[in-house]
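I'm stuck. Please check this protein.
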Amino acid sequence: MPELPEVQALVDFLRERTDGLAVAGVELGSINVLKTYDPPPQALAGLLVSGVQRHGKFIDLDLDGLHLVFHLARAGWLRWSDQLTTTPVRPGKSPIALRVRLSDGSGFDLTEAGTQKRLAAYIVEDPQKVPGIASLGPDPLADGFTEADFAALLAGRRTQVKGLLKDQGFLAGVGNAYSDEVLHAARLSPFALAAALDEEEVARLYAALRDVLEHAVAAASGKPAKDLKDAKRAGMRVHGRTGQACPVCGDVVREVSFADSSLQYCATCQTGGKPLADRRLSRLLK
């Protein structure tokens, strides 16, 4: 799943390549991808791309005051082409969920692999009309997001910090991969309770959150869309590296599996050397 750093890179990529262009047309490859019906996709034809921005994991194309907003979800991606084929998208015949054609012949496809179709697109007059955007928490890289703000969000929450970091209503843009990386950098257990963190641990977590994301954004910056997935994997220290050596201490990276996801961590760096039980609602082994 693309998270804040990859989504920001896609925003920068699109902003550069759509500058001065207009939308020539929008084609649907999946009727389910579009979550709004008014205005229709045809309303975007001829509109100038006047801006591209990010809201959490959402990408927002400003088209002369109308907004094409999309969320790539777990298995979605953006595939850019400098010269799109003239053959129209045939609904249900390919992984293409939505195609945007631009006035110079270029454009992009939103694709989705797998059977669980969660990629979502919206055409709205105001991005805040998209439910997922309206409910977003603060952006962790916003200039005004301070350690005190972060501490206030954590205060009193008897919730495991791993789950909080992934909660888009708590913070916008962090998912499973970067929450693993942040907690490893902060030397905190994924199952530590937010309300139980002391002042020094909160400071470590805030610093790790900003540092990990800022470095990931810098690493993704300037890369074409097709290279972002590999760049993300290459930058991971623990996420997706079960069985490999922790780059900090050399201990083996361990995994906890759930019904539809997993997390990775280093016991030496994060849990005082105690492995986490690999079962749902895991607790530290005694």
